[in-house]
TrEMBL record:
InterPro entries: DNA-bd_dom_put_sf, MerR-type_HTH_dom, MerR_fam, TipA-like_antibiotic-bd, TipAS_dom. The keyword Repressor applies. PANTHER family: MERR-FAMILY TRANSCRIPTIONAL REGULATOR, REDOX-CYCLING DRUG-SENSING TRANSCRIPTIONAL ACTIVATOR SOXR. It comes from Lysinibacter cavernae. This is DNA-binding transcriptional MerR regulator.
Length: 253
């Protein structure tokens, strides 16, 4: 059974132009093109489109999505990964909904507000105390000084570079690449290079011990690992394993 391009555009809330663009860049081929030039999509094409739309929702760019779709995972394995992410995202949203509902109810009834209830599900914890505890007040101060001296554009570029690395890790995991694979180790190298840029302002050395320890921190403290779980709930463990392997094989202690 096939669906026409206009029907798919209507059902998915996208446009025929977008679907044609996906074909042009090799991301989504129709199952056939009719004599009138209309494109039609069978079940396999629809599953692939569903994966594309889910990955777009995760924030991946089209190039990263193409990398994911070219991976070895079967459609069922890939959709299982997507489903686990959606469950995790739903839980996060449910906590925020309950938090706002509680605040609204207490405001309506004139009850006392509790911060713990108001901000459950929101990221409201600063990293200052953690950095001071692990690396010392001097390190935090040097890091803060370096950061504040950057221009707004430099800060945006620095954070954008990290976001791209996070997306590359997510795409590699969704594609089924192991943390020790060449593809993922190349991403780990980018992560370490990014860490070196920040470390220059603190006087710290990005050693094997530092990199491996940071990977462990992503797993042990959700505040640090949350950016790696946007694509998969086990993303922090995946990045930890990739960094640990990189540290032991490409860095000195």
């Amino acid at each position: 059974m096939e669906q026409s391009i206009s029907e798919i555009a209507r059902l998915t809330g996208t446009t025929s132009r977008t679907l044609r663009h996906y074909q042009a860049i090799g991301l989504l081929e129709p199952s056939r093109v009719g004599y009138n030039g209309y494109r039609y999509y069978d079940d396999d094409a629809l599953v692939r489109l569903q994966r594309i739309l889910l990955l777009r929702q995760l924030g991946l760019g089209l190039e990263a999505i193409a990398s994911v779709l070219s991976g070895a995972q079967s459609n069922t394995d890939a959709l299982d990964t997507h489903l686990r992410w959606l469950h995790a995202e739903r839980e996060h949203l449910d906590r925020q909904i309950r938090s706002v509902e509680t605040t609204l109810k207490k405001l309506t009834n004139g009850e006392h507000l509790m911060a713990e209830e108001m901000f459950d599900g929101f990221d409201h914890t600063a990293h200052r105390e953690e950095v001071v505890q692990r690396w010392g007040a001097d390190t935090y101060q040097r890091s803060n000084t370096w950061w504040t001296q950057l221009s707004e554009e430099q800060r945006k570029e620095f954070l954008h570079a990290q976001r791209l690395i996070q997306d590359e890790f997510g795409a590699a995991q969704l594609a089924g690449h192991s943390p020790e694979s060449d593809q993922v180790q190349a991403i780990a190298a980018k992560q370490v290079d990014w860490l070196r840029v920040g470390a220059e302002g603190t006087g710290m050395s990005v050693t094997a011990e530092y990199v491996a320890g940071l990977g462990e921190l992503y797993v042990s403290d959700p505040r640090f690992g949350k950016n790696y779980t946007r694509h998969d709930p086990s993303g922090a463990e995946y990045v930890r394993d990739a960094l640990a392997y990189y540290a032991s094989h490409s860095l000195t202690t």
